[in-house]
Amino acid sequence: MYNYKQKKETITRPCDIAGCTNGGEHRAPKNRHSSNEYYWFCLPHVQDYNKKWNYFQGMSAEEIDNFRDDAVTGHRPTWNHQIPPQMRDKMIRDGLEKLLGDGAVKTKPRLPPLVKKALAKMELEHPVDKKQIKKQYKTLVKLYHPDVNNNDKIAEERFKEITESYKYLLENYCAD
Ligand SMILES: [Zn+2]
User: How far is the CA of 30 from the centre of ligand 1 (A)?
Assistant: First the structure.
């Protein structure tokens, strides 16, 4: 069966390499121990990533460590050779990011403070979609509208804040 939603998601997801405008149709695990964390890359970048990943896999922990610390002068921590797998993965990942370019792999942008504030005013938590925001607004209007609060000053102030937050979120907030 044709799955429209999945298809759309595949097309609109951008490649995780900063500056790359291709679609990120190919996923690559961030490490071997968290099966649900992935990067999404375009074909050339996923091939590049896999090649480099394999390259690191073939290195000893010490070699990866040396590589990683190459740029950091005068500081080379002494590792226990029994490096736990999670740490080894982190080293591989750090090494990959260095190879792909500094800050090459996009990190998820943090929620802008004003969006955070507006969500809090509306008693919502990220992520929410527009439908949920509208629904919540209706609920809050029923509670705080001056007409239902005998023009109570506090309720009126609250109502104003909620309405401003609502408008702000509709224009400036996107859950993903
Ligand atoms: Zn790419």
Answer: 16
Predicted confidence at residue 99, as pLDDT, reads 65
- List the domain boundaries for the chain: 9-100, 113-172
- CA 43 to centroid of ligand 1, rounded, Å: 7
CA–CA distance from 93 to each of 34, 51, 98 (Å)?
Answer: 13, 13, 9
Kindly provide the b/e burial profile for residues 145-175, where b requires at least 16 CB atoms within 10 angstroms of the residue's own CB.
Answer: eeeeeeeeeebeebbebbbebbebbeeebee
Q: Which CATH class is domain 113-172?
A: mainly alpha
Give the tens place of pLDDT for each residue, 32-62: 655 677 888 899 988 888 887 777 777 777 7
The number of angstroms, rounded, from the C-alpha of 62 to the middle of its chain's C-alpha atoms is 31
Record the pTM: 0.41
Residue in 97, 116, 127, 79 with CA at minimum distance from that of residue 30: 97
